[in-house]
Every structure is written in C-alpha cells, then in structure tokens.
Amino acid sequence: MSERPLTANIRSNAPPLTVAEYEEAGGYQALRKALTTLAPAEVTKLIKEANLRGRGGAGFPTGVKWGFVPMGADAPRPKYLVVNADEMEPGTFKDRLLLEGDPHLMVESMILSAYAIEAEIAYIFLRGEYVLAGKRVGQAIDEARARGYLGRNILGTGYSLQIYMHMSAGRYICGEETALLNSLEGKRAIPRAKPPFPQTSGLFGKPTIVNNVETLCNVPHIVNRGVEWFKKLSRTKNGGTKLYGVSGKVKKPGVWELPMGTTAREILEEHAGGMRDGLQLRGIIPGGASTEFLFEEHLDLMMDFDTVQQAGSRLGTGTMIVLDDRTCPVGMVHNLTKFFAHESCGWCTPCREGLPWLERILKALEDGKGATGDLEEIRTHVKFLGPGLTYCPLAPGAMAPLGSALNRWRDDFEKHIRERRCPWR
Amino acid sequence: MATIYVDNKPYVVNEGRNLLQVCLSLGFNLPYFCWHPALGSVGACRQCAVKQFKDEKDKRGKIVMACMTPAAEGVRIAVDDEEARQFRETVIEWLMANHPHDCPVCDEGGECHLQDMTVMTGHNYRKYRFPKRTYQNQYLGPFINHEMNRCIQCYRCVRFYQDYAGGQDLGVFAAHDRVYFGRHKDGVLENEFSGNLVELCPTGVFTDKTLKGHYTRAWDLQTAPSVCVHCGVGCNTTPGERYGLLRRIHNRFNHDVNGYFLCDRGRYGYEFVNGERRVRTPLLKRDGALGPVTRAEALTEIGKVLSGPAVLLGIGSPRASIESNFALRELVGPDRFYDGVSARERQLLSAMLSTLRAPGVHSPSLREVGEADAVFVLGENLAEVAPMIALQVRQAVYRSTVPMGERLGIPAWHDSAIREAIQGRHGPLYLATVTGDKLADVATRSWCAAPDDLARLGFAVAHCIDPTAPSVSDLSEELPGLAKEIAGALRSAQRPLIVSGPSCGSLAVVQAAANVAISLSAAGAQHAALCYDAPECNSFGPALLDGHGLDEALQAAKSGSVYAAIVLENDLYRRADRAAVDAFLEGAEQVVVIDHTVHDTTKRADVVLPAATFAEGDGTLVNNEGRAQRFVQVFKAQGDVQESWRWLGELSRTAPSNGAWQNLDHICTRIAETAPALGEIARVAPAATARFLAQRIPRQAHRYSGRTAIGAHVNVHEPALPEDPDSPMAFSMEGFPSTCSSALTSAYWAPGWNSVQALNKFQAEVGGPLRVGNAGVRLWEVAEGHDHKYFEVIPPAFQSREKEHLAVPLHHIFGSEELSVLSPSVAERAPASYVAVNFRDAEALQITDGENVQLVLDGIPYRLPVRILPDLPSGVVGLPSGLPEMSWVKLPGWGKIVKEVPA
Predict the structure, then answer these.
(1) Which of its termini does chain B have fewer beta carbons within 10 Å around, N or C?
(2) Averaged pLDDT, A366-380
(3) Residue B113 domain-assigned?
(4) Cβ distance B318 to B340 under 8 Å?
(5) ipTM for the complex shown
C-alpha cells in the first residue's frame, strides 16, 4: 500500500495520539526544523515548489496564496491564519477524519503555516456540529501550548503564536472564506467582494490566509520529507495524496487517503466496494455537492484538479456522491437545490431569489405539477446563476449538479412533466 | 481622466470612479438598486450588469457589475448588449417574484424606483407561479409606515441607518429568501434621520406615515423650492401641496447644504401649516375677545394708531424672513426695530456673527463640515439642536479614515471593503458638551462639564495652538492633557473644524470656540473652519439688519411713553420673562401681531393679521453658515393669508413712510440698497420677471390630474390661475419646466425616472453638484488677513453651590422648536417636561427618577418630575428647552431644588 502521510497516525476506533505519542511518531519535528532552520519565506518557497493545491475545493496553489501576504517589518499587524474547518459541503466528511483522528497534525500544521506568513494569531473555524473534533483539537491546542509549541517565544525561537478555536453557529456559507471571516468578526455571515482579497484586507481588515484543513495538514510533511517526496506521492502533476470519499448506494461508503490522481473507478470499485447489488451507477458528483455530474465514461479519469476540470467538472473536495438508477435524478437535484436555497445568505438577488424559485420548480416536477416552460426556466437560471454573475460561488456551485443533470437526463426531466408524476415513485 | 469605451464609443471620464457612476453621469439608463450616490457600492443587487470586453478583438466578453468595476483607462463595456440586457431583466424578474404588485394601493406608486427600473429593463410578464412570501409588518412610530412584503432586499435602509446615520435599532434579520429589515420588535425608530428611509427605499417598504394621513400621489402634488424653517441649518426642501393642504416634505438636493438627506424634525415638522391653531383671517379685539373681521376693518383699525401720536415699536423675528423683518424695519424706522430675541441670545448671535465675519475665520457650508478631518465640538448637542450638522460630523470622522482603505488599493466607492479595512476606526472627534451626546459612539473623547468649564477647555485649546492666545489659569487636573490632545489633533489636520453655538446659553463658550478658530488661523492652518449652529431658521437675518435688543423694547412699558407695537411672527413669551411681556403688551396703545399661528402673544393682541407660512409665501432666510436662501410660495393660501412683508407693505402705504414695493423683487432691491450686509439678496433667485422660453416654470407636474375638475362640484368653469408676482413660477402644470436655476427647481423628473433618483440626470457627475450650480448665496466669504483679536475674558472654573444648582437648557430635536412641535407626529416624539439631575446630586437631594420636585428659579417654582442623567456634571441640572408647556426661563441660571413633602 502506498504511503498515506495525512492519516498515518489515525487508528480506527481508538482515540487520537496524545502529544507524547504524536512526538514519538515524529510529530512536531517539522515545526522544530522550520522554526530553527528555515526562514518564513523559505517555508512558503517549499510549499510553492511542492505545488500544494488547496483541498477545500478550488485547488488554488497554496504557496502562491501565501506569497500575496505582505511580509516584513512594515506589514500590517497582526496577521492571521484561519483554518477553514467548516466542513458543510454535502457528502463531504474528509476534514472530520483528520480533525478527530489526528488533531496534533492539525495544530502543528497551523503553527508551521502561521510561521510561514508571520501570523501572530491563528483561528480554527470549526463546524458547529463537529463537537468531538472540537474537543480533541481543543485538547491538542492545550497540550501543544503546555509543551511550548504554542504561545510566546515558541521553542525559544522568538516566534509567538496564539491559536483560538471558534465553533461555528452553523451556516453553509461560512465555508466561503470571506463569509467565514465576517462570521468570525461577529458580523452576518455574508461573503465579501474580492478584491480586496483576504491576503491584504482579511480578518479585522488585516492580512489573512484562509486554508482548508486537509491542505494545511500536508505542510509538516512537505517540510519534513521534501518537495520531491511530496510530488512522488501522486500519480499526476498535482502532487501529494488526497482524501477521497464516497457516499451513496455503494457497498462500503467511506473516506480513504490515496495518491492524487487515483481513478474514480478504483476509488469506487476497490475502496467503496462497488454499487450495492442490483443497482447501476448513473453518475457521480465528484467533489461534494457543488460540482458537475460525471458519468460512466469518466470513471477511468484520474481524479485530480486538472483532469476533472478538463472533463467539465471539478475535483472539489474529492468526496463523491453516487447516483444510482433507482434514485430519481430530479429528486436528487431537488434535494441539493433545497439545501442551497436554504443556505443562501440572502445578500445578492440571483442566489436569494433564484434558488428558491428553482427549488419550487423542481418540487413541482417531483409532485407531478411540472409545466411546459419549466425546463426553459431552469436553463435560464443555470445560465444566470453562473460564475461572476452572483456575489459569491454558492449559487454557481448549486448550478453545477443541476445544469449537468438537466443536460444529461433531459428525458427524465421531461418525463416528469409529460407523465405528471415522478417515474421513480 | 481616463478614456473608456461604452458601446464602442470613447468617453473621457473621471478616474477613481466605478462604471455605474460614470455610465449614469454620461446619461446611460443603467438600472441599479443597492448603490446610492451617498452610500457607495456593495454589489448586492446585481442589477447594473454590463458586458466587459478584454480588448477590441474580444467579442464574447463577460458580464460584470458596473458598480463594482473601476472605470480604468481603456475599459471596454457594452450597456447595450443582449445577454447583459437579459440578465438585467432577469434580476428584475427575481426581485418582482415576491413583490406584491400592489402599486395601485402603494404610497410609493408614481415615484417608485422599482417601477422605473422594472420598466427600464423591459420585464413584463411574470413566470413565477408559486406562492409569494409574506412578512409581518412592524409599528415603527409616528413617522414611518412599514410594508415588508414590498421589500426587494437592496440593503440600502440598513446601510443608511446604521453605517451612515449611526442608528442602532434598524437591522437585517434572518437569511436566504426570508431576509427581514426592521426592528428587533415593534417600536419607534429611534434615529433622528429615520425619515430618509422614505426616500432611500427604492420601493414602498418605508413610506411617510404623515403623508398617508392625507395621501396624494406624487404627480398630484404642487411643489416649489423651499427651505426648512425648523433650525438654523437651512436644509433645502420640497414641500408638496394639494387642495390647500400641505401633504409632505421631501428633500431638495443642495450639494453645498443638505445633500440627499433631511432630519426628522425638518421632514415631519410641516403639519403646523395645516394646524387648527392657524390664523386664517384678520382678528380684532372687541370687548376683550378676538374675532374675525375683514382685512379693511383690520387695516383701518391699525391705520388709526399708525397716524396717531404713539411711538411705533417693531419687534422682528428670527423665524420670519429677511423681507418681513426688513419691511417691519422700514415701517417703524431702524431706531425702533428690535430683533425679537432674548437679551442673552442676542448677545450670543452678535458674538457669533462678528466672529464669522472677521478675517481669517471660514464659516463652512454643511458639505464642508462633512469634509473635515478633525472636529472639536464645543457646547453643542448637535443631534438635538442641528441634527444635520451631527450627520455631517459623522461623515467627516468616517471619511477621514477612508484613505486608510485607499492605501490598501481599495477605491473609496467600494463601501463594504473600505469599512472592512477601517474596522470602525474614525478620525479625531472631540466632544465637549454639558451632557452626553449621540455622537459619542464615534468620538475620540467625550467630556461633559458645566458651560464655564467647557469654555475654559476651549480657551485652553486655543492657547495650546497659539501661545499668544490668552491662557487659562488653574485648569483642573484632567484638562491640560485633554486640551493638548485636542490642540494636537486640530493642528495636525488638513481641514480642522470647530463646531459650537448658542445652545448652552454661554457667551464664554461661543468666544472660546472663536479663539480656537482664530488660533488655528494664527498658527497657519489654511483650511480651518468654524461652524456655529444657529437656533432658528433666520437667526442671523434680523441680526444683520442691526435690530435693537428686545429688552430695550420691553423697557418702553416702564418709560411711561405712549407706544404701540407691531410684533412680527414672534411669541414674545418664548423670548422673555412673562411679567415683562405682560407689562409691555398691556402698556401698549395697540398691539398688532402678524403671525400664522395662535400663541400667547396673539391672544393678547388687539389686531392679528394672518401671515403666510413658508409654504404660502416667498422670502429669504439666512442660515448658520451665512447663506441666503429663497423659499418660494408653494400654494396660495385661502382667505386673507399673505406674507408678513406684504401686510407690512400695505400698512406702509397707509403710513407716512410709504414703502414703494409691491412684490418680492421690489423689496429685495430696497434691502440691497439699504442693508449693505444683505447686498447680495437679489441674487439669491431669479427675478419674478424671468421667463424660460418665454414661459413661467410650472409648480405642478405634467401629470398633475384633475385641474379642470377641481372645484367642479361648485362651479364647472375652470378658475383663473392665481397670479404670482413674486417668482417666475406658475401655479399650473403649464409652462416650461426649466431646471436652469436650482433656486427655482423643486422636483426633478426625466423620462423613465419618476423617483427622487431622477436627480442623477441633473448633476454633472452623479452625487456631485447640480449642473446649474447649487442654490443660495453666501453673504460673506473669509476675508484675507489675520486679525488676531482674541476674546480675553475667561470665566472662572465652575463652582457648585451647596444649596443651589445651575440650571442649563437641554435641547430636544422633537419638542424644543416652536413650530415643528405643533405637528402631531413630532409632538408624539416630544418629551414631557422634567428636570434632569445626575446620580450624585440626586442621591444628595434624596430624590429618585420620576419623582416630582420643585425647582425654584428666579423665585418662580416649577413642579417637575426628576430625570436622572448620568452624564450631567455635578451641581448642574438640566431643563428641557422650549417645550410647549414650559414657559420662558432665563437659562443658565441658579435654582433650588426642593423635595416635595407628601401632605
């Protein structure tokens, strides 16, 4: 079995490593190494060279993002590192594994990354329902502080960092980094317009980096093992491993750390055990709810950022939702749209008004009350809730599964109208 | 400047703007909601979509929001693009999906931005077939009606209310398609600028509740340019009338003065015009009772005295126009013209006026107040005495931090990002007031003290800035540091501003503020400004006519001479001691009062002549800045009501002095000839003989309905149009609706733009000055030279007394002003009378909040409930100023609080 650095310490049905156990397993060595031998800019350089790409969904190169942070004595202070642990994307449960399974890896990753951007304060913004993760990360922070990895003058190097954990009050939109920042400031969780980007005016108007849990957990390993090692973990140009997940009617739903670029077929068949007996696969949403459907013909594609994008979807969070032939695709996208409509923050018109309208059309289709023109209306919405037209990516994300479902299964949609019922009911 | 391409045509535009600003300024009809010229961009509504192209070869382009895209050099966009047009139409369709389509019963109908934008985008047939959402509406007090179902969630209301006006109690609640704009629970909207929601809301969520009480469609209102009469700031207004009733007040844009906004006193104080206490016919006292008579009878009665031996004393008024005051002066002669304010106020006004007209001291416009980068407020609770100055001070402290955001590369119009970068920081603002101030939330430091101590702080600041200014000895421990800090902030500012005024009744405060301004000028500050608020709409007017003091007039009663008095729009009982006024009125051979409203003075008159209010007459007012502004008659009042100056003109013709003027222009010419300080008065507005394409300017909209039907139940003949000898405007829908003089433009309209936002079409650049210039003429500009004459008399530190307290006036935006409180809605917001005491004094006196006590002032006991005011200095008690039920009290003054012993 190939190397799986992110989950190496995670034991099923056992508590996470204590700080001593974590140290014994090589933990906090990267931190020691970086703080004593590397300048902050050198850490950023390593991450840039490793071409670590954001695991939260967008796949933006992490080192490049860090490079936008103003550095040096003149930089505005304090600077912030914020971990986006508000894992609310439907079908996504990969960060939870890391947070609950190896909280010290999270803490070490935060300290290292904060050091790279010379941040004085780091927040971990944790999904409100992740109570166990909150408990374990909180404990890990305390333990790390007790060992001198956190607080003033870390390991005698002069670098100081405070970490605060914030349990979210629970809105999907808080996963959008700028809405997260507003929420953290105690404001309404609505996104901010970019530019300005958080790197220049972020939390409390100061330079801020927001990164996903899984993204950051790669940092200690890159520092420890080097760029080449990291790149070789992968089967593609997008380096490293990836936590892939599967939900839906498969035999063994779950999440696994696999080389970046593992094919969908391998994930589905070897790790998730294939479809449940008697069910046929109709499509997958590759990366949480906000990505376009992929189909049978895409299963042999390598699941990395570039390949999936070329196939017309996005890797997203890498946790796929599987649609089978006994589940109504209209019902599925209705369910998703209902979620997105409910989670709209209410700031911009297309999202606030368009999503509920779509939800009602889809509900009508499902209830046998579809009307001619409904599919045209869905098309218009898919077009006008697209990227750049709304204030943030929530609505375009919602359009990804809906638009691709309508393209692929137009017959099924039309059947709902023609037969005035849901054929799956 | 930058060159941008719109629909393939090059345009040179101002840099540093966004595409929506420049497109609107260029005259494109680009729909928008969340953007507002005074509020900046937030990108919420997505309505102003245009297509942007990378370069000439890019044919695909992508849709961007104009309000969020900088108008940078070389930007290429298409407004007229099919996809962008479809998107804009779809945005409207979304907004209208849940809108109730209740225009026929909506107060906003006909002047609704949502209607205009809907038509503009071409959205016609709704496809949304599902149930609409509904909301519960709230009771928001006497000013504002709430109808949330109409809301299109543009967020303007909360952005104005919270970010611009500093209000706390209007917020946005809930999320997704259930976003709700209102209060946490039903209740009166507390902010004193809440009425602006009526004009800011692009649809009918927030509408004018007082208008609802006598509703008329906007297109049926007869309007004329007017000036607010409820404080000294002189905000420009548009009163609207129908069927002889004044229906509402709207803002009238003046870039130099009030911009887009009004305070609630100014907006809702108008109902005194329709009040039951109006004087509509001449009244004559017979057998001790006033009764209606014909104008001939009244004039004959007055004529008898005019030609008799009695010395004629004329008492002017700071709430009457320049023309009326002048006409009175002409009638009685300059030696017997009195300015009609209390002795103390007269002293304060003349100190303010002489300082403002001295060389080196700049009296800023209200707009300039909002551009200051360090502000020192001395003595004034601005939100209560001159709310619009408070609003501008709030903008000043915000704007002076905007460069912090700009240094991060954020353009000033990017409102949400600027506010994020600033994080609630604000420029230097120092408040030194008798009691806690509403600007305290944005103040660097607030300090409450007795008037004399406030003055000492001011004098100390001046001395810190310029050591040749008189120094203050024995400053108490905290003051030297504070004075130094304020002096430092003012000195290091580019545009330092001192705001002061007469409201705490202290000459020392007014002089201290003057010293600070003079010291800044002496220290070489190029753009230092001194803003005094003035208590009434024409406080400076009679003062500029060199009237004598009212107290001198009141002395006449004691002199034994034979005299008669003409009192102009003035209730003397609000100006002086009751006994003195009684004696004066009783001792007069005849008392003629010319006023529009019954009050204690009219009740004691022998003859009352019905005066026009601001809405029924023409005249000029001088505001606190020294700006003369014309108000034009909105409608012809019924009966004998006419301007006071017109009555006085008629009286002159029966008297030897024989005024030659028949109309406003005549009198203005005469004023310019005889009162050098007012030489510019004729320039304030075009002469009555001016014509535009040989026509008058209509007061009525081209859609004014029912002209021939009005009065048809009485007479089917169309009545002759009333004449207007005083302005080039017509009481008609006919004429040429010229907008070439802002002094003659009350309503702005452009094809497709029926809401207040039609104003965009009349500004050279949206949000900027009107293309034809702003109304009003400044009577003086800062003279060159440094005439460093400091005021030298510094009061000793305030010493509290064992058995007495210093009573000071406390002002209330609702209640303290004589006319606005006659409006039922304003009266509802006015406090009941009270005496304010701080905690420690209350404890010492063993009195509690709400308990009745006796306050004995000048030997007169007043029975008042106690109100505990924590910020009030020890040894000082506050009395509400000018409440209808409070008689005139000389304040500040020492009084004694006596605890009531239960019988």
Answers:
(1) C
(2) 96
(3) no
(4) yes
(5) 0.96
